[in-house]
Amino acid sequence: APPNWDYVGGDNQAGAQAAVEHLIGLGHRRIAFIQGPPDTPTGTRRLAGFRRALQLAGLSVDEGLIVAGDYTREAGRTGMTTLLDMECPPTAVFCANDLIALGALEMAQQRGYRVPHALSIVGFDDIDDAEHASPPLTTIRQPPHRLGMAAAEALIERLKGRTEPRRISLEFSLVVRASTTPLTESETQAKEVEI
Question: pTM for the whole thing?
C-alpha cells in the first residue's frame, strides 16, 4: 500500500512463525508449507514467518517442501497431493490459511493418512469451519471483529481530519486443537528409515 495509507491487519509473519514453532515444539522437523498467493502481502509475510521459525530452530529450509497455492480449499487438496507423492513426505504441514488446511486435511484422509497421528496440520485465520472439522483444526486466530473495529476507527479519525498514516497490527493467538500431535518415537524412527 502507498506509504500515506492507513494499514490495519494482523501480524502475519509472527503468526506464521508461531504456527511453525508449535510444530517444531511437537518434535516435527520435516515441515511443509502450502503457501498463499506469493504476490500478496499476507502470502509474503506468512512465508517469511515459516522460514524464520525453521531458521531460529537451526533447521534448514527445504525448498521442495514449499508448495505453491492460493487461498482456496482446492489449493490445499492439490498441494497435499504433491506433498504425499514425495518419496519422503512431511510429518507436518503448515497451511497459509484455513481453507487451504481444510482441503489438505480432506486429501490426507482420502489418501489414508490419519490426522494427526500420521500427519499434523495447522491453518491460519480460525474461520468457523476450522473448529468443526474432523479433527478440529489447530490454527492462528485473528479476531475479524477487532480488525473491523480498528479499521472503522482509523477511517473515522481520517474523516475528522487526521492526515498522518497509521499502522495498526493486532495480536494473534495460537489455537491448539486436535489436528496436531507430538511426533512419536516410532514415527520418528520410521521417517529416519525412509530417509
Answer: 0.86
